[in-house]
Design brief:
The complex is a heterodimer of chains A (about 650) and B (about 300). With about 650 residues, chain A is mainly alpha-helical. Chain A contains 23 helices and 8 strands. In chain A, the strands form 3 sheets. A 3-stranded antiparallel β-sheet of chain A has the order 5-6-7. Chain A has a two-stranded antiparallel ribbon with strand order 1-2. Chain B is an all-alpha fold and about 300 residues long. Chain B is about 70% helix and about 0% strand. The chains are: A mainly alpha (about 650), B mainly alpha (about 300). At the A-B interface, helix 16, helix 17, strand 7, helix 21 and strand 8 of A face helix 2, strand 1, helix 3, helix 4 and helix 5 of B. Strand 8 of chain A pairs parallel with strand 1 of chain B.
């Protein structure tokens, strides 16, 4: 593990490769398709390099970190350090960015409000920045550089379609929120940093290096606990803004994600939010050395995370339920799912604060679940954004009121969207259940640590039904119900609506990952447990919290032997019973026939009397409206045309290839 | 050998449920008729209905026939899966497959199948029906989940065989939380089994069975069968959670006692259904909202050991 074969070198190589690719694609911006393929090739190579780094860390454990560049007078050093925790996030970036880049080739070719030179370079720098952000140890300057690389390119990609109303404001809001988060986080780092160079374990570190700060932490905690608490609050705010935490998430996230081109929405939601998760985990669990755990009010922080997480998951999901724009709905749901991750992290901290072996094991379960959910959410949310993008590409709208019946016309997109929707709703045998299960297990069995855990856990279970409701609205309104007039017109104009093979491939790959992670969750658990075992110095990675779930092909059993989940057995059982039911249904030998739906014999179904997305769950919105008028206001529905054959005033036109 | 016994016991549960579900339905119809001073159909009428429907023509009218078939078949397959995970007068056959979280989510999946079937049929009536069904699920899922969570908090485990054995009363002292949940579940039980006054999603007199409107022939048979099984499953769960006494007696006595309790519960459902009028969805939602609030109070009480 010396020379150029360390994981850190591989990650730096990947970053440099992405930056090189960015410069190259800048010069071939007139050749859209070529630029797309080049960027895909670069990202694929990057993913291979990152994959090598991840495999290296998991096999041999982390090295000491590698300093590539340092300017001691400024306290400025590019030191990368890849341990198991970084490896999880690096793997997530690699796994999601490859299908997203593949999807982007065709998406960006036919969708051309602006030059490709304003897209691919930004995309590559964006990915490079995220790779840097989860592996740098510099809490100040290189954090700033990577954060700005990520923010500025993200801003540029969000305002890619700047002619659309609202997109510029969305981008600007994103930019300012991220700058605020950056400033807050750096302020926190400045408060904790001590003067002078520090030599820790034989390596000379700059004052803003993570390990140097951690080295000073015991003295700081003993002398100025309030000071540390303020700094940690700043970190919580900064990274909380990034991951969409209540109350900050709603200011930027639901506007920014739908505005970006869909492959970018997939990356923003699937990966970029997770840098906030990384920051919170790293700063709250790895910054304080385990010797001084007694001085660190970890349980109190856990309660803060728990309440914020519960609020975030409930409000995000509930707001999502009211949306009528497909990508906006998904963006709000991302807030909700980020809330689940925050909730899992909170459960872990609360249980760690209790400090008994039993709660330690549960804390390990919670952290494993939160990390696994981070990975799973990255996969299914980017899948759903790609599907929403495919629908947008095919029909030119993301207004779910105007869509319907696409399952027949876009079978692959529809099927993958169904898989993604069921996965996010936590249906057993898919990935969402596999990662919510450990979080619920830890929360609901942790009564010993805090009586709030089961209450917040029950809210999380309840929210799971809301998630299901909103995904049923998403899938049902777009792919099932009745074919809308827009879809019919579009189909007649274009011949076929299903997207190109490349885009379908990207969707199928992600859907397969959802199913695989759901049926073989032991692989995910093994990966995350191994990663945590390879992340020394963390509070939650003591030997008693590692490997809290016995995971094998036969199933998952919590170390406390109080919870169990055997997906393959369940699959066999359900398949067997499904076959039995089919046999029963065919036993009568009845004939089949297709017919038009029955509308009481007199009404003709038109676009005007279709049940649209706006009309789903109106009673629920009204009921909440009594408690909270703003949240319960019924969504405005455009007036129905008098003559059913007449187009509504805001009719979308076939000629204009716009996706506003 | 052990595996064989497990398979046989699961199969026994499936067969018992499939065999008894129409009988309970027939009883329900007969008793309802008697309460309403009618003669009522023969006790075995639901069996004849199912047989007749299996041979009738199957008319598919939705946008996605593939989804219609899948959702309907999965609906019955899911409730039968649940039958293998709960005690039906005998210990849980497949306790190793999952825990109470799985149970909550599997019952949700059974609801999802109804939703998908209604959405795939695509008629405005069925869409109104599934919108109501979803609202009901949002309100009811926490009630059921909290009952199980209270059991888990009391016993410290998620294991099905422990929780589905009167665990709501296991807190020690007077089990206030368990009694509170008993009241809540009694008050909402009609909604779980989709009977009057909470059969709002189907409401045959106003939206013509909502999600079911476009289904005929074998699909309707399977769907109806799933609803009958659902009545048995929820009654069994209720008995296992709240009326556990006597279930551990030797085989025929414990078994008979269990089904007698289920029968009493079904008769109670019938009595309420036959004497009430349907609520509107907004009235029902307010009612469920109150129950959810009370169940959270019960959960907090359980956290404090009551």
């Amino acid at each position: 593990m010396t020379g150029f074969t360390t994981p850190e070198h591989a990650v730096l190589g990947a970053i440099v490769l992405c930056l090189g690719g960015a410069v190259f694609t800048l010069f071939i911006d007139h050749r859209r398709r070529v630029a797309g393929w080049v960027s895909f090739g670069v990202i694929l190579t990057t993913a291979a390099l990152v994959g090598g780094a991840v495999a290296g860390v998991l096999r041999h454990g982390p090295g000491p970190g590698v300093t590539f560049l340092s300017l001691p007078p400024l306290g400025f050093a590019l030191r990368l350090y890849v341990d198991g925790l970084s490896a999880v996030f690096l793997a997530l970036i690699a796994v999601v960015s490859v299908p997203a880049a593949f999807h982007a080739i065709d998406y960006m070719t036919s969708h051309r409000p602006r030059s490709a030179g304003r897209f691919y370079p930004h995309l590559l720098v964006f990915i490079a920045a995220m790779l840097g952000l989860v592996s740098t140890t510099d809490m100040m300057w290189f954090f700033f550089i990577f954060w700005q690389m990520m923010t500025l390119t993200g801003w540029a990609m969000i305002r890619y379609e700047r002619s659309c109303p609202g997109h510029r404001q969305a981008a600007a809001r994103f930019l300012w929120m991220m700058q605020f988060a950056c400033a807050v986080t750096m302020l926190g780092a400045a408060m904790l940093a001590q003067d002078g160079l520090e030599t820790v374990a034989g390596t000379e570190l700059m004052r803003f290096d993570f390990d140097a700060v951690a080295h000073h932490m015991p003295a700081l905690l003993a002398g100025h606990p309030g000071w540390v608490a303020v700094a940690l609050t700043l970190f919580l705010t900064g990274f909380g803004i990034k991951l969409g935490m209540w109350p900050f998430g709603q200011f930027w996230l639901p506007d920014a994600h739908p505005a970006a081109p869909s492959p970018v929405s997939a990356l923003l939601s699937g990966v970029m939010l997770k840098t906030g998760v990384y920051g919170l985990m790293r700063y709250f669990l790895w910054l304080v050395p385990s010797e001084v755990r007694a001085d660190y009010p970890i349980g109190g922080w856990g309660l803060a995370f728990l309440f914020l997480g519960t609020l975030t998951l409930f409000t995000g999901t509930f707001r999502a339920l009211q949306q009528e724009q497909s990508k906006r709905l998904l963006a709000f749901s991302s807030i909700g799912q980020a809330g689940y991750i925050l909730f899992g992290l909170g459960v872990c901290l609360v249980l760690l604060g209790e400090g008994t072996p039993a709660t330690g094991a549960l804390a390990g379960i919670a952290l494993t679940g939160a990390l696994f959910h981070t990975l799973n959410h990255g996969v299914f949310k980017s899948l759903l954004f790609l599907d929403a993008g495919a629908v947008l590409h095919a029909t030119g709208t993301q207004d779910m009121n105007k869509l319907g019946g696409l399952q027949r016309h876009m079978p692959v997109t529809g099927f993958t969207a169904l898989v993604g929707s069921l996965a996010i709703a936590g249906v057993p045998l898919l990935s969402g259940y596999a990662s919510k299960w450990p979080m619920f297990t830890a929360a609901l069995q942790g009564t010993a640590a805090s009586r709030w855990l089961p209450v917040c856990g029950a809210v999380a279970v309840l929210t799971s039904a809301l998630t299901l409701a909103l995904m049923m609205k998403f899938y049902g309104a777009i792919f099932l119900s009745r074919t809308s007039r827009l879809v019919e017109e579009r189909r007649q104009a274009l011949g076929r609506l299903e997207v190109s093979r490349k885009m379908r491939t990207a969707q199928v790959i992600l859907a397969t990952l959802c199913v695989a992670a759901g049926l073989l969750p032991f692989l995910g658990f093994a990966f995350v447990s191994r990663a945590l075992a390879m992340s020394p110095h963390g509070l939650a990675t003591a030997p008693d919290t590692i490997g809290p779930v016995t995971a094998s092909a036969a199933g998952l059993v919590a170390a406390t032997n109080t919870a169990v989940y055997a997906p393959l057995l369940l699959l066999a059982l359900m398949l067997g019973l499904f076959a039995l039911v089919r046999l029963l249904a065919r036993a009568g030998g009845s004939s089949q026939r297709a017919a038009a739906p029955w509308l009481c014999g007199y009404a003709v179904e038109t676009d005007a009397n279709r049940l649209r997305a706006a009309h789903y769950y109106t009673e629920l919105h009204r009921a909440v409206g009594r408690l909270h008028p703003a949240a319960g206001r019924l969504p405005a529905v455009e007036p129905r045309p008098q003559n059913p054959n007449e187009k509504p005033a805001s009719a979308w036109s076939l000629e204009k290839n716009s996706t506003c | 050998m052990e595996v064989l016994i497990l398979i046989l016991r699961s199969f026994a549960n499936v067969v018992v449920v499939l065999a008894l579900a129409p009988l309970f339905e027939g009883l329900l119809r007969k008793v309802t008729a008697r309460i309403q001073s009618r003669q009522g159909p023969p006790l075995l009428q639901p069996y004849y209905d199912l047989l007749k429907l299996l041979g009738k023509e199957d008319i598919e009218s939705g946008e996605s026939p593939w989804m219609q078939r899948f959702a309907v078949h999965l609906a019955l397959a899911t409730v039968l899966t649940v039958a293998c995970l709960i005690p039906l007068g005998a210990p849980v056959p497949l306790a190793g497959a999952g825990d109470i979280i799985l149970l909550v989510y599997l019952l949700t999946l059974a609801g999802i199948c109804t939703l998908l079937a209604g959405l795939a049929a695509g008629s405005t009536f069925s869409l109104i029906g599934i919108s109501r069904e979803m609202i009901t699920m949002i309100a009811l899922e926490p009630l059921f989940a909290i009952t199980l969570i209270i059991g888990a908090v009391n016993t410290g485990t998620f294991r099905l065989e422990t929780v589905l054995d009167g665990s709501v009363y296991a807190g020690g002292g007077v089990p206030w939380s368990g009694l509170l949940m008993l009241a809540v579940m009694l008050l909402s039980f009609q909604a779980f089994v989709q009977r009057v006054p909470f059969d709002i999603a189907e409401a045959e007199t106003e939206i013509m069975e909502g999600p079911l409107i476009e289904y005929s022939g074998p699909k309707l048979a399977v769907f109806k069968y799933a609803q009958m099984v659902r009545l048995v499953i929820y009654s069994s769960l209720f008995v296992a959670l709240f009326i556990p006494w006597g279930s551990h007696l030797v085989f025929p006595i414990g078994w008979l006692l269990f089904w007698a309790k289920v029968l009493v519960l079904v008769l109670l459902v019938t009595l309420v259904a036959a004497t009430h009028a349907r609520y509107r969805i907004d009235q029902a939602l307010r009612y469920y909202g109150g129950l959810v609030g009370v169940s959270f109070v019960a959960l907090v009480l359980a956290g404090f050991g009551y």
